[in-house]
């Protein structure tokens, strides 16, 4: 048992709280009694669990049977080895206490893994979010931080450490791995900054996808050596496709000369495409909407993520002041390169203009939907998918081929970790093309053209693994 002095103030203005702790199997533990004493909390325990009560009346409950804690309505899970009993007292890992105390007393509390003391920071966390996404044998780690911080990455065997000096993170101190690419992740704080230690599985490839002034994106992929520097990945297959009929509900999209709303055409084609992909290709197909209702940007993105989609297809109708404009075009995510591409981008993003007080240019929007992350690994694949879908529709419908183009659609930015495209199936503003788009037989041709492109992409994608 070690003991340090009670409370002092550091030179840099951090408030430091020293506690009695024990060290077991590489983990620092602090008792609930000690936490209650040092942070002026009431402590109660019963057969059903333990509770710490702040002066404000807010309660932290700890269920030692289920290894969970609840505070402010949020449930925190922790591993078995973060909890122990000695001499009849409950001990939790010190950095877990910091994670739980922060919302309990509304202060930014961290455990200094070097000085073995708690410290309280008056500033909001400068590392805003850590996001982890798994896709088959690949894991993406993204760390969002305030601009001006200087992250560094160091690998030592199967341990990779991301260090962000002067950065503090308020979130889980431990994340259990998927056991395919990594075992677990530990967050370590010091008064100088934060270390994210990622314990990788053997034979892992590591790639720094992006390293900007406000984010770090890393990709881990399990590979096996074939000798001579050659490597191969685990097999990937196209199994789940998310189809996103544009607009819906109170957002009609573009409206044709005879009053046909874009949202209706998009949904009708989506339903036909779903039937074809399921019945003829055996794919699992999920629609972001299957009726006329509002679906906001985050809902569309989350549907793709939660279903672990392999492809994302967003369906729309084009519109122009020029009533003679006609044809089909397919977009993938990139920087809009022409005036026309920027105009289409602005039109399709308009439904999301109420997001974040009406601004679609604010970088906070991009942060919230992960749109600040450029599509890297899947950018080329998205372009290939767009080309094949474009060819399929033109071949089936004989619509004018306006080509494959690039734009920064918000809905595509949010699903940048899968091949994703946005299809403008025709100009609803053109009276003749509006009539064609309303025709069930033409809609069937469009759906089959898209399905042709997906089928060919699936064939090439899976054979290239």
Question: Briefly, what is this?
Answer:
The protein has ten helices and 29 strands. By secondary structure, the protein is an alpha+beta fold. It has a six-stranded mixed β-sheet, sandwiched between helices.
Please explain how this structure is put together.
With 465 residues, the chain is an alpha+beta fold. It folds into 3 domains: 7-121, Copper Amine Oxidase, Chain A, domain 1; 127-233, Immunoglobulin-like (Sandwich), CATH 2.60.40; 240-463, 3-Layer(aba) Sandwich (Aminopeptidase). Helix content is 26%, strand content 37%. It has 10 helices and 29 strands. It has helices at residues 32-38, 94-105, 262-281, 297-306, 339-349, 363-368, 379-397, 410-413, 431-438, 440-463; strands at 7-9, 15-17, 22-24, 27-31, 42-46, 49-53, 59-63, 68-71, 74-77, 83-86, 89-93, 108-112, 117-121, 127-135, 138-145, 151-156, 159-165, 174-176, 182-190, 193-200, 204-211, 215-227, 230-233, 240-245, 284-287, 311-318, 328-333, 401-407, 420-427. Strands 25-24-26-29-27-28 form a 6-stranded mixed sheet, sandwiched between helices. A hairpin with a 2-residue loop joins β5 and β6 (49-53).
């Amino acid at each position: 048992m070690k003991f340090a002095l009670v409370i002092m103030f550091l030179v840099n203005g951090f408030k430091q709280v020293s506690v009695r702790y024990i060290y077991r199997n590489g983990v620092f533990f602090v008792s609930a009694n000690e936490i209650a004493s040092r942070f002026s909390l009431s402590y109660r325990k019963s057969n059903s669990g333990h509770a710490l009560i702040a002066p404000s009346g807010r309660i932290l409950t700890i269920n030692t049977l289920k290894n969970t804690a609840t505070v402010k309505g949020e449930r925190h899970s922790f591993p078995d080895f973060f909890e122990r009993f000695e001499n009849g007292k409950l001990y939790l890992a010190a950095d877990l206490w910091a994670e739980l105390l922060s919302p309990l007393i509304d202060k930014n509390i961290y455990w200094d893994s070097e000085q073995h003391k708690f410290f309280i920071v008056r500033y909001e966390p400068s590392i805003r979010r850590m996001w982890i996404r798994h896709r088959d044998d690949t894991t993406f780690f993204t760390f969002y931080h305030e601009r001006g911080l200087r992250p560094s990455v160091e690998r030592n065997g199967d341990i990779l450490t991301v260090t962000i000096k002067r950065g503090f993170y308020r979130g889980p101190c431990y994340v259990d791995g998927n056991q395919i690419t990594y075992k677990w992740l530990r967050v370590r704080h010091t008064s100088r900054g934060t270390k994210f230690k990622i314990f990788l599985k053997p034979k892992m490839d590591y790639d720094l996808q992006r390293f900007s002034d406000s984010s770090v994106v890393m990709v881990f992929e399990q590979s096996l050596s074939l000798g001579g520097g050659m490597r191969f990945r685990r097999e990937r297959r196209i199994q789940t496709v998310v189809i996103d009929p544009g607009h819906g509900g109170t957002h009609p999209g573009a409206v044709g000369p005879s009053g046909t709303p874009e949202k209706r055409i998009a949904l009708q084609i989506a339903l036909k495409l779903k039937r074809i992909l399921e019945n003829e290709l055996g794919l699992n197909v999920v629609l972001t909407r299957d009726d006329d209702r509002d679906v906001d940007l985050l809902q569309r993105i989350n549907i793709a993520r939660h279903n672990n989609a392999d492809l994302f297809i967003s369906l729309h109708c084009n519109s122009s002041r020029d009533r003679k404009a006609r044809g089909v075009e397919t977009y993938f995510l990139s920087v809009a390169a022409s005036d026309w591409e920027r105009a289409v981008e602005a039109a399709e993003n308009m439904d999301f203009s109420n997001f974040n007080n009406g601004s679609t240019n604010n970088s906070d929007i991009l942060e919230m939907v992960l749109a600040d992350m450029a599509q890297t690994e899947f950018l080329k694949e998205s372009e290939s998918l767009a080309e094949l879908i474009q060819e399929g529709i033109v071949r089936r419908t004989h619509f004018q081929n306006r080509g494959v183009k690039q734009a920064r659609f918000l809905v595509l930015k949010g699903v940048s970790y899968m091949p994703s495209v946005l299809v403008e199936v025709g100009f609803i503003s053109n009276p003749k093309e509006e009539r064609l788009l309303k025709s069930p037989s033409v809609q069937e041709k469009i759906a089959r053209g898209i399905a042709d492109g997906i089928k060919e992409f699936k064939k090439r994608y899976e054979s290239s693994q």
